[in-house]
Amino acid sequence: MKIISVVGARPNFMKIAPFIKVVSANNESQEEQIEHILVHTGQHYDDRMSKTFFRALNIPNADINLGIGSGSHAEQVGNTMIAFERVLLNEKPDWVIVLGDVNATLACSITAKKLHIRVCHIEAGLRSFDERMPEEINRLVTDRLSDLLLTPDELSIENLKNEGVAKSKIVFVGNIMIDTLESNRVKASNLIINEIIEENFIQEQKSNDLNNFNSPTSHFALMTMHRPSNVDKKEILEPIIRFLLDEVSLDMPIIWPIHPRTQNQLQQFGLWDKAILNEKLILLNPLGYHEMLKLNMEAKIMLTDSGGLQEECTVLGTPCLTLRWNTERPITLRKNGGASVLVGNNISRIREEYKNTLKLNRSPDRPKLWDGKTAERVLKAILNTNN
Ligand code: UD1
């Protein structure tokens, strides 16, 4: 059997790592070999957004890189389809595996399907019900076309059934990203926060002498934000920055590994200089997997609009404010046993929940099948469907 797996952007890399490991294990122990080809669309191209993860998670170099880079959504999707079609015509795989909800997921599932190649979607069935989110469009189209839909939780199964997806195509496998978290926990916990900061400090920023994270009682907030709905409009981004600088930073330092999109927008809107001058706001370059995991393990509170971090906060128990009005991952919400609460981007709501959340302690949760063994179930589901 020949499988092509596709990755394109940062959140895909931690999801493919455990699958590649189980394919190798299969090939060592079973007679019937799986030929696996890894395709990187090149949507994320910076070392810090891509290569770092391949190295840290022992992902073999991509066999094929489509070199797509940045551009509008139509450019990214269109260029990926044109380049990926050539790969499929050459390689003729039995399966194409796509992950998550990035533009590569959409582009490659459509391309494969048009060539009558079977598509397996890992992380199927998540729905924010917000079609203004580019990722929601990617999820809807990919799930509509996929032959095998592997879901991370049971709520996702319900979403798919409600959309009329045949039960026979759906398999509940759990959350593959948690496989990666579990196999890297120990390595991450041995890192030292002050070193992470020193090594990733954004150059032009002042020195970080005022903050010391070596003491176990030193609190800090951890921040990430990159969604277009939060960072592409000055009238939304500016009040959030003001809240961080004028309020949160009075309680504790804020560590913020900053996404390239957000850094660009802060610079464009004239907010960058103000942000870097505040000594309690520690702006870092995008971090590696273990570094981010370590910070998440120790943070007093997380503020984020990332989907993956909501999930990691659930398992680690980090109290989390999700800077969105909706989530495709309701299992991560406090009301469903998780660690996060939706606060959108309205400052009075963020402030109120921030104050409530500061009173909370860590409370880890483990949703069903988030057990570190999802990749094995993924491969089993594919082998079962192949027969
Ligand atoms: C993408 C995904 C999103 C995911 C996020 C995680 C889609 C539709 N969105 O959003 O689901 O949560 O990745 O990071 O696929 N850039 C760089 N260096 C890079 C990559 C991007 O500078 O390595 C810049 C681009 O030039 C662009 C901006 O960052 O200006 C946004 O990149 P883009 O690939 O459009 O999407 P993300 O916002 O990263």
Which secondary structure elements does this structure contain, and how are they paired or packed?
Layout: E1 2-7, H1 10-29, E2 35-40, H2 47-56, E3 64-65, H3 73-91, E4 95-99, H4 103-114, E5 118-122, H5 134-145, E6 148-151, H6 154-162, E7 170-172, H7 176-189, H8 193-200, E8 221-224, H9 228-231, H10 234-251, E9 254-257, H11 260-268, H12 272-277, E10 281-284, H13 289-298, E11 301-304, H14 307-316, E12 320-322, E13 340-342, H15 347-358, H16 374-386
Parallel strand pairs: 1-2, 1-4, 2-3, 4-5, 5-6, 6-7, 8-9, 8-11, 9-10, 11-12, 12-13
The chain binds uridine-diphosphate-N-acetylglucosamine (UD1).
Task: Describe it.
It is built from 16 helices and 13 strands. It has helices spanning 10-29, 47-56, 73-91, 103-114, 134-145, 154-162, 176-189, 193-200, 228-231, 234-251, 260-268, 272-277, 289-298, 307-316, 347-358, 374-386; strands spanning 2-7, 35-40, 64-65, 95-99, 118-122, 148-151, 170-172, 221-224, 254-257, 281-284, 301-304, 320-322, 340-342. Helix 7 (176-189) crosses helix 13. The protein is an alpha/beta fold and 387 residues long. 48% of the residues lie in helices and 14% in strands. The protein has a 7-stranded parallel beta sheet with strand order 3-2-1-4-5-6-7, sandwiched between helices. It has a 6-stranded parallel beta sheet with strand order 10-9-8-11-12-13, with helices on both faces. The longest helix has 20 residues, at 10-29. It starts with a strand and ends with a helix. Bound molecules: uridine-diphosphate-N-acetylglucosamine. Uridine-diphosphate-N-acetylglucosamine is lined by residues 9-11, 43-46, 49, 70, 101-103, 134-135, 226, 259-261.
